[in-house]
Write a structure and sequence with these properties.
This protein has about 130 residues and is α+β, with helices and mostly antiparallel strands. It has one domain (about 5-125): RutC-like (60s Ribosomal Protein L30, Chain: A), CATH 3.30.1330.40. It has a six-stranded mixed sheet, covered by helices on one side. About 25% of the residues lie in helices and about 25% in strands. Helix 1 (about 45-65) packs parallel to helix 2.
């Protein structure tokens, strides 16, 4: 099965030796999306702003890969502080309002790149 790199300027460029995402067969995989502005690379704001930006970046990668948020089947949320879970969850719910919600894991980690408060990755079914 062939794999195709996903590249979009609507999400931040990879900051290391990895791809923004990969599509293969009927699946689209995103790398973890930081809450970075795609144009400046800056991470700004509180957990609400950061979650919105991470999910906006995730949406851009998933769509470039040939899917959409309604076809996301699995997400993983990385939080630098589990005390931010409720605020993250409120924003997250706005991005997954319709249809069957994806399965999800949410974990606290010691630190995220660029000292972000959140990072989110996903797997989606290609449309």
């Amino acid at each position: 099965m062939e794999k195709k790199e996903i590249v979009t300027t609507a999400a931040p460029a990879a900051i290391g030796p990895y791809s923004q995402g990969i599509s293969t067969g009927s699946l689209v995989f995103s790398s973890g999306q930081l809450p970075a502005d795609p144009k400046t690379g800056a991470i700004v704001g509180d957990i609400t702003v950061q979650t919105t930006q991470s999910l906006t970046n995730l949406k851009a990668v998933i769509e470039e890969g040939g899917s959409d948020m309604q076809h996301v089947i699995k997400t993983t949320v990385f939080l630098s502080d589990m005390n931010n879970f409720a605020a993250m969850n409120a924003v997250y719910a706005e991005f997954f309002k319709e249809g069957i919600k994806p399965s999800r894991s949410a974990v606290e980690v010691a630190r995220l790149p660029k000292d972000a408060l959140v990072e989110i990755e996903a797997i989606a079914i290609a449309k």
